[in-house]
Each structure stands twice: as structure tokens, then as C-alpha cells.
Amino acid sequence: MKKAGFIMIIGSLLLLGLFKFPLWNIMLGAPQYPEPLGLDIYITGIQGASEFDLQNIDGLNHYIGMKTIPKPEDMWEFSVFPKVIAGMVILGVLIGILGMTGKVSYKWFLGWFILMSILGILGMYDFHLWLVDYGSNLDPNAILKMVDDQGNPMKYDPPLIGHKVLLNFDAFSYPHTGAYMMFIGMILTVIAFFIGKKETKKI
Amino acid sequence: MKTTFKLIMLLLSATFLLSSCGNNNGKSSGSDGALRSSNAEKVYVAPGEHDEFYAFMSGGYSGNLTVYGLPSGRMFKEIPVFSQFPTSGYGYSEETVPMLNTSFGFVPWDDSHHPDISQTNGELDGRWIFINGNNTPRIARISLKTFETEEIIEVPNSAGNHSSSFVTENTEYVVAGTRFSIPVPQKDMPISEYKGNFKGALSFIKVDQETGRMAIKFQVLMPGFNYDLSHPGRNKSHGWFFFTTYNTEEANSLLEVNASQNDKDFIAAINWKKIEEYVNNGGGKIMPTNYAHNVYDEHSHSATSTMIKEVLTVDPTEIPGAVYLLPTPKSPHGCDVDPSGEYIIGNGKLSADLTIHSFTKMLDAIENKKFDGDAYGIPILNFEDILAGTVKSGGLGPLHTEFDDKGNAYTTFFISSEVVKWKVGTWEVIDRKPTYYSVGHLMIPGGNSRKPFGKYVVAMNKITKDRYLPTGPELEHSAQLYDITGDKMELIYDFPTHGEPHYAAAIPADLIKDNSQKIYRLDENKHPYAVTNQSDAKVTRNGNEVHISMSMIRSHFTPDNIEGIKVGDKVYFHITNLEQDFDVPHGFAMIGANTSEILVMPGQTKTILWEPKQVGVWPFYCTDFCSALHQEMQGYIRVSPKESNIDLSWSLDGE
After folding, report:
1. At residue B102, does pLDDT exceed 60?
2. Using 50, 70 and 90 to split pLDDT, how confident is the model at B89?
3. What is the pLDDT of residues B250-300, one digit of tens each?
4. Are the CB atoms for B361 and B390 separated by under 8 Å?
5. CB count in 10 Å sphere of residue B145
6. Residue partners of B407: CB distance under 8 A and separation at least 6
7. Which of A98, A151, B243, B601 has the smallest set of CB atoms within 10 Å of its CB?
8. Are B581 and A35 inside 8 Å of each other by CB?
9. Does the CB of B532 have a partner CB in chain A at under 8 Å?
């Protein structure tokens, strides 16, 4: 099961990309922002796509009463997520090594994948809750108090994934390099599972 | 162009036109319909698209520099240089008043003529653009990163700073020559003793290659002629500089007649490398003088003016081989050097022909000492020995020549109102096209360099008349754009230009557009009264001086309510724009201020003075429609009687 274990190790190591590259990216374009403003969401915090984007997004958001974009210390996620990812990398590499030496079965690879998927979905759900809160928990003294067709206060939560129109802004929200590396890594662990299964059967 | 000159030219043109034929100088008959539609495509820059070239046109009597796009002819910006500019507060704000300081005190206006873009190896490099102030002699340097004037140096011993501001091929020097000769140093003497006593100073201003900072390295004190225009040698003639002269008669009155008597005046050829070596070895004489050197710092957002008390002068007769005079017919105006550096063109403005001198022949004549006398000890070369050829143009009043990248030259003819295209080397005329009307300079992008971009020529005209919808007696000037990619020039566009553009310089947009700065960084703001965080805003009093350190961000001032100001105070508003977003300026205007508004760019601090004269509560507001809540961007100042004892107080956010 050498090959499968090796792929498992590579797959888990790809998660390390999340420490270097953004997990998610939200771009906000408008007629007067032909070069859109953008947020790069890392597991360790939120940064502007360009140097002054955070300040400029906060500046615009104060009109509609949104809170300022959280600093790393403002959200527990930014200290917990890195630990969870680091833990999963260590676990995955360990399972890979043990798999290579035949100490554990290929089924552990799938087990890691399922655990990672559950954590991932929980993470996405948490991210979604934050977006909703960020976009709808508005300052009652906001300068612009917009309502929708039904007369309910407008919500400005950017989409979790895809495109949404927020007043004059077009918001585009998509996974970024870190997430793609994670997805590839996770697929590799599934491949490792099937290869491991095949290698085991041959013996 | 001087009015007298314009007048005589008009009179001349009237006479000549009656007797001459062949110059189809009437109303534009235009081209046929099919051609016109393809010409429209050539100049059409679709909405949102960018022009291919930046063109920097001198403002003439506006004292400024305007930025246009080519081929569209759209104006992008007016850069204040030598004139107060209430739009931005330039020359009104405390920070920029020193920019207009001179040995004559504050001079709020000038006449800007000849912009020239910095070069490296004879090619445009897009670092800076220089321009001369003609009236109170000054040279300015403008950054092509911020598109703001960064430095102005006054030129002493000069008057009518006209044969300026042209750069050598590595921007070693920016050169400024005097049009009017004067007593050097200035003294009280009879004007009639001009001849033999006045001097013409040609100034070589060293440019620091890192910072662009200018310093006068030396002045060549030439005989008292009028030094009209100049251009640097390039390529093989790099190291030389050429100046046209007129009034070699040294007349001091009624020059239009008295300075037009000599059949030939001169082009002065200056071997500046030789003079540089001479002064580096301790040559020259330090002369006491007084001139201003004004420098603007983009981090403190402030200018300082320093008076300099001496200048190094050089007597050209003391440096063998430094200066020669090339006889050139008929009061030459433009002095132009082709991209190879071999040909020096003298545009004899009272002539029909152009005189072309050969640099190689000039060197040869110098080597063989083929002199035809001297003027005040400066050797005069023999006209026939140095002549490369003559362009028999058939036009009248040649003024200026530029070059393309295919071996052609283009010369303007003021009297016959046309541009004539001719072949360098064979001197044959290839084409001629009318201009509307009475063209002065013309400009090809990179036309004053080793590497011209021969796609367009822009003709800058002195007379507009009926070209556009009439706007009363005073009109903007008119420019024509010609496509010069084919054998024949094609007039493709006509657009008004602001002020009185004399010369212009253009550069491919790709060479500079990505360097154009978007904001000033707040974390680099070193202004002593800058507020980088609105909670730091404050008001301080020092006797009757009140300093208000105020911030602006969409869409409020901090503070916006101030009390404790008294009649007779001098109130300085130091205003910082806290934005760090591209194209979000805020303006500031105070009712009754005897200054101007200030327009403050993101990250910048500017200061304006207000001297309240009346008791009351007076508003101020943002003058730039900055945001949806721009109209809410306002504040009040309470002004109390002089003797009142109300303490200073001011609002911070939410208080």
C-alpha cells in the first residue's frame, strides 16, 4: 500500500496551502469601482485584495450601518481554524505513513476524508452564519435605511458562493487558491482510498 | 509670440498673399466624404478606451501645462506651474505659495512656452517634464508620477527665458537661454549703450538623476544678441547645444526694423562638454546674484523657497573651442536637430527657405580653422563650408521643424499657414498641407529625440478665427492633427487648446500611464499639521494665530463645530483628506476667505488662511461632490468679538 499511503500524505499536505493562500474571495464591483474592491478570507483573518480595500469597504459600509470587517482577534474562528487544519494535516500524514507501512488499513483514508468533510461543512455553515449576521445586523442609526419590496429592512449579506446584487454593488464570492488546494487534497485522499483498496486486494 | 511680431507677420502675409499664388490658403475645402469617415475612425477613441499618446501642451499666457490625449484631442488635466490656480489652491495654499517666490518676491503668473520630457540615451524616459517661464525667468520640473510641479528654479542674469527648457540626451542638463540681452550684472545705464555692453546668458542647469533636483552649473555669458530657441545635439552631436540668434545688429529700439538688417544672423554652437570640463577644473567666475530655488516635497506636501546668492559664469572667449557661430539667414527662429544629430536646421523666419547646417562639416571647418572673422572674439564659421543644403520650400515664414522616424522633416510656415514635409538629405519637398491659421510650433511625439514616433503631427496655431463656434472676441487657440503614416499628410482632426500653447511634447501612454500615482499614502504624510486619525483633530491658539488641524473623510469634517475664534484672528485650516481610495478628493471652502478653495487629494494635507472680519456663525463646506452625503459635509465656526473671552472648543465625532 506504498502508493496509496504516499498519495494520502500528499493529499493531506496540500491543506497547508490554506496557511499561505486565501480560502475564499469576495469581490465588490460597482459603476464607480471599475477596479473592484475585494476581501481575501484566510483561515487566519481577512485581508483586502488590494492594500486599502478593507478601509474602503468599511468606509462604504458605514452608510448602511454594517459593522466594520472583523480583525483576527475579533473572531474565535481565526484562532481555531488554523489549529484544526494543522491537526488534520498531521493526522493525514500520520495515517499515510502508517498506511505505507501497513499498520493501518486503507479504510482510515476514507475515515479522514469523512471527518475532513464534516469539519469543512461545519466551517462553511459557520462562515454562512457570519455573512448573514454581518449583512443583516445593522446599526439602527444607519445613514441609509433601505427596505425591500415587502418593506422589510434590506439585507446585505454577500453570497456564500456565486453572484448577488447589493445596491449598486455586484458581489462575487468564490473559493480561492487555498480552498482549491484543499479540495484537490481531499480528492487525493479518496483516490488514495481506492488505490489502497486495489493494492490490498492484489496481495 | 510677441504682438509686434504677430502684427508684422500679418502685414507681410497680406502683402505676400496678394502677389503670390499656389498657396491654397483659403477656407478648407476639406476632403471628400469617404475619406472623412475613415478620418473619423482614426481619431475616434471609444467611450472607456484610452488614447495612444499623452500630449503635454504649454499653456502660454496661462502659465500652466495642459495634458491632452492623442488622437482624441481630449483634455485630461491642467497642471498649475507658474500661475496661481484657485481650482486646487496652488499658489494660494500656505504650502504652495513658496513655489511662486522669486528674487522679485511673489510672482503669481508667467508665460510658459516649451515643455520637454526627460530622456535617457536620447529616448523619452517619462520621468519628468520641464517647462520654462518666459517672463520672470524660471524653469519648472513636473513629476510624471504625480503630474504636479515639484520644483521651480529662477534663472538669474536672464530676461525673456525663451530658448528654454530643452534637455540633453541623458537629461544631464536642462538648458535655458535668454531672449533679451541685459546688463550683467544689472545696473543703471543708458539704454542706448546696449551695443557691446549687454550680455546674453545661456544657463546650463544640472539635473540630479535620482531626484530630478535642478542646480545651475554654469552660465555662458554671450554677446548681446537675442537667443531665440535652442535644441540639444544628439547622437553624434551629443555634447553640443545649438541656439538661434536674432538682433545680431544689437538694436535696442524698433527691433522689427533695426534687428532685420543683417542678411544673416547666427546659430550659436556651444560645446557644453568642453565648458563642463573647464568648470570642473575650476574655470569660470563666481558672480554674486540672487535667485529663488523652490522645491515641493510630496511627503510633507509643502514647498520651501531658498534664495541662492551666487552663480558661476563663464566667458566663452576664455575657453578655446567652446563656442562657434554658424551664419544663418534671415533672423532664424526655430533651431532643430534631426534624430541622427547630423543636421541643424535654422528656420529663417523672414525667408522662404530653410538652412541646414551639417555637424560633420562644422567639425571639419573648426578643425581646419576656416573662420570668417569673429564676433566679440567668438569665431564665425564660413556659411558655405558648413551648409548641408537648403530646402526651397515655396512657403513663407518658416518657424519650426520636427522629424519622424522615416527620414522626413516637417516644418511650419507661419505666414503661409502650412506644414511642409521634406526629405532629410535630399531637401526635396514631398507634401504641404494648410493649417488654420498661422501655425507656430508643431509637434511629433518624441520629435525632439533620437526616436520619434512618427504617427501624428500636431500643428499649434496662433489664430483661430472661424474654426469653432464663436465665443466673443477672445478665443481659445486651435490645433490640427495630421496623420503622417503615409506619403502625404492627412488632416484628420481639429481641436481647441487652452491658453496659448507654444510648444508641446508627447509620449506613448504606455511609457507613463502605469506610473501615475493614485493616492498619497497617509502613512508617508510628514506634514507638521497632518491628522492621520480623526480623533487627533485639534485646534490650537498662539496669540492671534489659530491652527485648526482638521480631517475629512466621506462625508464629514472633524471637527465640524468650532468656537472661540475672534475677529482679527489669523485662522489656518490645515486639512487632511483621510481617504485612501483612488479619485476621492475633498474640497474645502470658507465663506469670505480672501484666498481660494483647496482641493485635497487622498492622503494629502493642505492649508488655507482665513481672517474673519465679522462676528457671527459662519459655515464651511466640501466643494467636491465626494459622495451621496456630500451636501451634509459642512460645519460652522463661531466668530466672537475681538475682546471676548470664549475658550477654544471643538467637536470630535459624536460629541
Report:
1. yes
2. very high
3. 999 999 888 888 889 999 999 999 999 999 999 999 999 999 999 999 999
4. no
5. 15
6. B423, B424, B425
7. A151
8. no
9. no
Q: Are B491 and B122 in contact (CB under 8 A)?
A: no
**Nearest neighbour of B580 by CB, restricted to A35, A52, A144:** A52
Report the CATH superfamily, name and number, of domain B53-515. Answer: YVTN repeat-like/Quinoprotein amine dehydrogenase (2.130.10.10)
Residue B49: which residues within 8 A CB-CB, separation 6 or more? none
- Residue type at position B12: L
How far apart, in Å, are the Cα atoms of A47 and each of A41, A43, A69, A156, B182?
Answer: 6, 11, 9, 19, 64
B418 contacts B23 by C-beta, under 8 angstroms: yes
Q: Determine the residue among A55, A64, A141, A169 to mutate to test chain B binding: the one whose Cβ has the most chain B Cβ atoms within 10 Å.
A: A55
- H helices of chain A, where? 2-13, 17-20, 53-61, 77-100, 107-136, 177-202
Average pLDDT, chain B: 94
Q: In 3D, which of B180, B142, B174 has the Cα closest to residue B159?
A: B180
Residue-level pLDDT at B8 = 54
Which CA distances in Å does B604 have to A38, A105, A124, B298? 24, 65, 42, 9
C-beta of residue A178 within 8 angstroms of C-beta of residue A22? yes
Provide the pLDDT for residue B122.
97
Cβ-based interface (< 8 Å): residues of A facing B: 35, 51-52, 55-56, 59, 63, 143-144
DSSP conformation class of B216: E
Mean pLDDT, chain A, rounded, equals 93
State whether residue B517 sits within 8 Å of chain A by CB.
no
* Residues in B touching A63 (Cβ below 8 Å): 628-629
- Which pLDDT score is estimated for B23? 41
Rg of chain B taking only CA atoms, in angstroms? 27
Q: A55–B628: do the CB atoms touch at under 8 Å?
A: no
Nearest to A56 among B581, B628, B629 (CB): B581
Best B582, B583, B626, B630 residue to mutate vs chain A (most A CBs within 10 Å): B582
Query: Using a CB-CB distance cutoff of 8 angstroms, which residues of chain B are in contact with residue A35?
Result: 582
Matching residue, cell 522689427? B256
Determine the Cα–Cα distance for residues B298 and B603; give it in Å rounded to an integer.
11
**DSSP letter string, B224-266:** S-EEEEEEE--GGGTTEEEEEEE-TT---S-HHHHTS-SSEEE
Which amino acid is it at A191?
Answer: I
| Chain-centre distance for alpha carbon B90 | 17
Q: What is the pLDDT of residue B352?
A: 87
Most distant CA pair in chain B: distance in Å? 87
CA distance B113 to B119: 19
The reply to whether residue B554 touches residue A52, judged by beta carbons under 8 angstroms, is no
C-alpha grid cell, residue B464: 483661430
Level-2 CATH architecture, domain B528-650: Sandwich (2.60)
Which pLDDT does position A91 carry in this prediction? 96
The one-character DSSP state at A107 is: H
The torsion defined by the Cα of B274, B276, B281 and B287, in degrees rounded to 10, comes to: 120
Phi first, then psi: what are they for B264, rounded to 5°? -130, 140
Domain ranges of chain B: 53-515, 528-650
DSSP assignment of A127-157 equals HHHHHHHHHH---TT-S---B-TTSPBP--P
For residue A151, is pLDDT > 90? no
Classify the complex by whether its ipTM is higher than 0.85, answering yes or no.
yes
